[in-house]
Amino acid sequence: MNVKDNLISIQERIKKASERVNREPQGVHVVAVTKYVSLERTKEALQAGIRHIGENRVEGGTKKRDAIPDLGTWHFIGSLQSKKVKHMIGKFDYLHSLDRMSLAKELQKRHTGQAPLKCFVQVNVSGEESKSGLEPDDVLPFIEELRSYPVIEVAGLMTMAPFVDDPEEVRPYFRRLRELKEEVEKRNYPHAPCRDLSMGMSNDFEVAVEEGATFVRIGSALVGNES
Question: Which of 50, 96, 43, 94 is nearest to 69 (CA)?
Fold first, then answer.
């Protein structure tokens, strides 16, 4: 598979989706989900022009970043155990799965950098029991409470939609997340600018773009699966 050709195809699809809703396609960032591919394929992705790399395992992600420390912006996109926080701090630029106060407390304890860690609050919009994340009604109180954790900057909200054959079926979930983000933005919290939406994967990213995604997390359609 040729990552560069895949990226060109995905960017064209993002452009068309953006045009359908009068958005600028430059406002959509592709996160290459490299958790199932080798270091060599990850390097290929970066060489193809991808700037955002997503990993969901602390050990695998930190090993890759240590091998190519000066390339890319690194996103931790999986569920993060509190005991793993000390190992991911300083290795990732974004956390996409802030979903509980105990994790916020551990981030506050372990983070020693000058700038706050950019975090997405994970929301379980679909209500699936198998998925992590806050209930939509709990998002605003949770973000209010994060005022007490100055090492955390709420960059935006994240959700994982159900995997379905017809991407149109998940549009309401993406739309609800956008509405939640707008509610947070209206509060003008210094600690929670909440300008971004992390939503959409290989099977549904065009619908996510139409509904306002600024980060789409794409694995198999972009870098494949070597596992």
Answer: 43
SS (H, E, C) the chain: CCHHHHHHHHHHHHHHHHHHCCCCHHHCEEEEECCCCCHHHHHHHHHCCCCEEEECCHHHHHHHHHHCCCCCEEEECCCCCHHHHHHHCCCCCEEEEECCHHHHHHHHHHCCCCCCEEEEEEECCCCCCCCCCECHHHHHHHHHHHHHCCCEEEEEEECCCCCCCCHHHHHHHHHHHHHHHHHHHHCCECCECCCEEECCCCCCHHHHHHCCCCEEEECCCCCCCCC
What residues are paired with 32 via a beta bridge?
Answer: 53, 218
Per-residue pLDDT tens digits for 190-221: 999 999 999 999 999 999 999 999 999 999 99
Q: What is the pLDDT of residues 58-83, one digit of tens each?
A: 999 999 999 998 889 999 999 999 99
pLDDT per position as a tens digit, 137-174: 999 999 999 999 999 999 999 999 998 999 999 999 99
210 Cβ contact partners less than 8 Å away, ≥ 6 residues apart:
17, 20, 21, 171
